[in-house]
Amino acid sequence: METLLGLMIGIGLSAATGFRVFVPLLGMNIAAMSGHLTLSSGFEWIGAWPAFIAFATATALEIGAYYVPWLDHLLDTITTPAAIVAGTIMTASMVGDISPLLKWSLAIIAGGGTAAIVQAGTIIARGTSAMVTGGFGNFAVATAEAVGATLFTVIALTLPVLAVIAAGIFLFVIAKRILGSVRKESTIVAKQ
Predict the structure, then answer these.
(1) Mind listing the pLDDT tens digit for each residue in 68-104?
(2) What is the DSSP string of the chain?
(3) What are the residue ranges spanned by the domains of the chain?
(4) What is the C-alpha separation between 170 and 186, in angstroms, rounded?
(5) What pTM does this model have?
(6) Measured between alpha carbons, how far is 122 from 130 in angstroms, rounded to an integer?
(7) Is pLDDT larger for residue 69 or for residue 5?
(8) Per-residue pLDDT for 134 more than 90?
(9) 8 A C-beta contact, residue 167 and residue 152
(10) pLDDT (tens digit per residue) in 9-55
């Protein structure tokens, strides 16, 4: 049961990572330092003071940078692989004593995959905003992403079952939107 709960927390935090890479890492660090979260063996460094300083600094810089028009698109090229790695590490750090093969397979598929799909959704939202508003509406998208990362982090740490359900709904909506775009493009190409 403990492994399942850890996996749910990891998936919820991975979803948050799709919005902002460092917000859930900072939340995880604070929860671990305050004794509200137990990290798997080998991941205790996430709950240490040096990690707090690094995650807090990175969070402030990441959130601030997303409010600079066009810099946010550049950051997406960096944060997409970073979100996948962070989602994988966070999920692995929450899954207890199971075989390393199973632990890392779950972490990569569930954690990294969740972070990748949520990140894809944020890229679509920012791209749509940039096309419609010339990039000036991205301020609202950046705010929504920061709030989403914070809410998903808090929910994942306090109500992990709800976080997994919310992540599942969010992933379904994103996948449906991506598939709709692919079908629309293939129809346009077929007509030409």
Answers:
(1) 877 887 888 889 999 999 999 999 999 988 999 999 9
(2) -HHHHHHHHHHHHHHHHHH-SHHHHHHHHHHHHTTS--PPTT-GGGGSHHHHHHHHHHHHHHHHHTTSTTHHHHHHHHHHHHHHHHHHHHHHHHS-SS-HHHHHHHIIIIIIHHHHHHHHHHHHHHHHHHHHHTTTTHHHHHHHHHHHHHHHHHHHHH-HHHHHHHHHHHHHHHHHHHHHHHHHHHHHHHH-
(3) 2-191
(4) 24
(5) 0.87
(6) 12
(7) 5
(8) no
(9) yes
(10) 999 999 999 999 999 999 999 999 999 999 999 999 999 999 999 99
Residue type, 62: E
Nearest C-alpha neighbor of 157 from the set 20, 35, 19, 56: 35
Q: What's the farthest any 2 CA atoms get from each other in the chain?
A: 61
Residue type, 143: T
CA distance 123 to 129: 10
The average confidence (pLDDT) of the chain is 90
